[in-house]
Structure formats: structure tokens, C-alpha cells
Design goal:
The chain is an alpha+beta fold and 371 residues long. The chain has ten helices and 14 strands.
Length: 371
């Protein structure tokens, strides 16, 4: 399937638009969304190719980013592989000596060929984006979907129509947060922390809203943690827009979510589980450092966490479907938790059925036999 030439024209036009100075100082980092970065990445290669070579500082100023942000983009582009017309056709990119050059990128001018499954996946993703409330440039997105449906034909359209992806956008919370961000206002959140099973109160200076892995997040400067934090909107139980102005510190850096949300620390505890076939779901629901097959459907997984309380709860929930094997003190703690829970059940059972066969207060010869 050949994509229409409009896509190539749009990319070139976007390159010209993105290349215009944005009025942002190149020496100061600005918070950008994943959408901003994607547009920049799409425009960067044709921008450099059309000029043969561009100085790093010149390109950073043209795109309104810092040189560090631009180098991060270039490092990501270095991994891009163009699979047509050859099985492996990487873009040759260099920024040594402060000058950016791009070669072996001629194939970006060729019409893109998409297979039915690739076109279907793209249509599903575009329709998901179209369902996000308050989306900007919705008309442009609708035109892209219509063009892709026409180019893909009935096969891809039929396959993609059978799949629906819903994004939890946080309802009215999104609209109120957009207003707070636009007005530069601080917000007060009541936020549920599942790891501790508690609601927390905190003031946050909002920076941006973003969608990661199907969930909507507020990124902001948390005045309680004194750091940039992400807050999942479906865990915000109450929101109040305050009269105070938001004051995000100048050195606050947006969180790079391209590699996912799981960011283990060297101070985290490494926890090893052995799971039965019935407990394999843990490896799918929690980010694991390693997963090892043990045979007969069993798994050994290693995960890292700064707070072992939720891990103890998980181990108790698993029961005979899995057990902690390391660290030893954590495994012993879980066994103690289980023993205390069992003792409470037994105490409650004796209280509900006094004089039963397990009641230690009744002499053995006078205990009533349970029926």
C-alpha cells in the first residue's frame, strides 16, 4: 500500500514551520510534551538534510530547545531504522565537532509502504487520540484518519474497526487542571497512594498533562516531596484550584517518560519471587527486573521497590501461588504476617463458637464434638 504524497509534503512543511525560531532562549530548558518531541523528531531529519550540515547551537535555537535536548533527540534518531527498500537501512547521523550531518536518509522521500496490520495499528492509535477530550487540531487528525482509511482500503479499516482503545482521561479533572495550567495556579490534591493504601494531601504546581501507557497524568512540582512528580488522574480523589500562583523552580526538569514510568533506584530493595503457573500473572502486572523460566510453568522474577509493604501484601495475596525467596528477612517477615493473620482467624473462630473442639478453655473430656 502506498501512502499518499501528502504525508511527505506535510513532513517537509512541518520542518519549515518547526525550523522557525520559537522565541524561547536556547540556554533554558522548557517543558515539552511527547507530542512536541515527536513533531520535532519528524522535522529534524529533513531540516538537516535540506541544509547538508547545521551547527548544534543553530539547530537548537531554530527548534527552541537547549543543546542538551537536541542531543537527546539526535541520540534517539540514531536508533531509527528504515526497513525499506533494504532489510536494514539505518540513517547515518553525526554531531561531532558541534555540527550535525545526516546521510543515507534518501529513502524518507519515497512513499511509505504499510502492511495491512501496520495500517490497522496506526488507525487504532489515531482513533484513540481522537477520543481524548480537549484535543487540539482535532480537524487535522480527522483528515489524517480519513486519508489513511482511503489509502489502506477495506481490509485495514475492517480490522481496525474491531479494536477499541479507551484512555482514562480523568473526567472533569482534566478540564480544571488545564485551566489551572493556563492561569498559572497552584492546585491542592487529595491523592491515593496504592502502595501505602492511604490518601495523601499535597500542594502541586502544575507543569503539564500527558498520556502514558493509556493513563492520563499530571506532571508538577510537588511541594510536599520538593521534586517533580507524576500523578495519575484516576487516583486524584479531590482537586482544588488555589489562589496562589504556581512557582515551578527554574531547575525543575520534566520527567522523560519515553522509556516508561518504572524508574528503579540503586537504593531499592531487590525482591525475588518464585511463582507457580497460577501466579504467573504477577510478571505481567508488575515491572520486573528479570524473569526466568523454571520449568513446568513456574517462574522466578526479580523486582525492585523502595517500599516493601506492598510486596508483603502481594505475597500474602498470592498464598500458595508464589513465595518470596529473597531477601531472607523479608521472606521471614511475610511468614510472620501470615502466622499472625492465621492466629486471628482462629481466635475469631473460637469466639464465634465457644466450647468447640478447639477451645483451649474447655477441658478435653467435656468438649462438645463438632458436627
Amino acid at each position: 500500500m502506498n501512502e499518499t504524497s501528502d504525508a511527505v509534503k506535510a513532513t517537509k512543511a512541518q520542518a519549515k514551520t518547526q525550523a522557525k525560531p520559537q522565541g524561547k532562549p536556547a540556554g533554558k530548558a522548557a517543558a515539552t510534551t511527547s507530542t512536541d518531541r515527536l513533531g520535532r523528531l519528524l522535522a529534524l531529519v529533513p531540516y538537516v538534510v535540506s541544509r547538508d550540515a547545521v551547527a548544534l547551537d543553530e539547530a537548537a535555537a531554530a527548534f527552541g530547545v537547549t543543546e542538551k535536548q537536541l542531543i537527546d533527540d539526535l541520540n534517539l534518531l540514531w536508533c531509527v531504522e528504515l526497513r525499506a527498500p533494504d532489510p536494514y537501512c539505518p540513517i547515518d547521523l553525526s554531531y561531532e565537532g558541534g555540527e550535525i550531518t545526516v546521510t543515507e536518509a534518501e529513502s524518507i522521500a519515497r512513499p511509505l509502504r504499510l502492511k495491512v496490520d501496520e495500517a490497522s495499528a496506526l488507525l487504532v492509535a489515531l482513533r484513540m487520540l481522537a477520543g481524548i477530550p480537549d484535543l487540539q487540531d482535532r480537524d487535522a487528525l480527522s483528515r489524517v484518519i480519513a486519508k489513511l482509511e482511503t489509502a489502506a482500503g477495506a481490509a485495514a479499516s475492517q480490522v481496525s474497526s474491531q479494536v477499541t482503545v479507551e484512555v482514562d482521561a480523568g473526567g472533569d479533572t482534566v478540564g480544571r487542571l488545564r485551566q489551572a495550567i493556563g492561569a498559572g495556579r497552584r492546585v491542592h490534591l487529595t491523592y491515593y497512594v496504592p502502595a501505602r493504601d492511604e490518601n495523601t494531601e499535597r500542594d502541586v504546581d502544575p507543569m503539564r498533562l500527558l498520556v502514558v501507557e493509556g493513563n492520563t497524568y499530571l506532571e508538577g512540582w510537588c511541594r510536599r516531596a520538593e521534586a517533580v512528580r507524576l500523578f495519575r488522574l484516576d487516583r486524584v480523589t479531590a482537586l482544588e484550584v488555589l489562589d496562589a500562583a504556581a512557582e515551578v523552580p527554574a531547575g525543575a526538569e520534566p520527567i522523560d517518560v519515553d522509556a516508561g514510568l518504572f524508574r528503579p533506584s540503586e537504593h531499592d530493595v531487590r525482591v525475588s519471587f518464585e511463582l507457580t503457573p497460577q501466579g504467573r500473572w504477577v510478571a505481567d502486572h508488575y515491572p520486573c527486573e528479570s524473569v526466568e523460566e523454571l520449568g513446568e510453568g513456574r517462574l522466578r522474577i526479580v523486582l525492585r521497590t523502595p517500599d516493601t509493604r506492598w510486596v508483603r501484601g502481594l505475597a500474602l495475596r498470592l498464598g500458595d501461588q508464589g513465595r518470596i525467596t529473597a531477601p531472607a528477612d523479608l521472606a521471614e517477615g511475610v511468614r510472620a504476617d501470615a502466622a499472625r493473620a492465621l492466629a486471628r482467624y482462629e481466635t475469631a473462630g473460637r469466639a464465634a463458637h465457644p466450647g468447640g473442639p478447639d477451645d483451649p478453655n474447655v477441658p478435653a473430656g467435656t468438649r462438645r464434638e463438632g458436627r
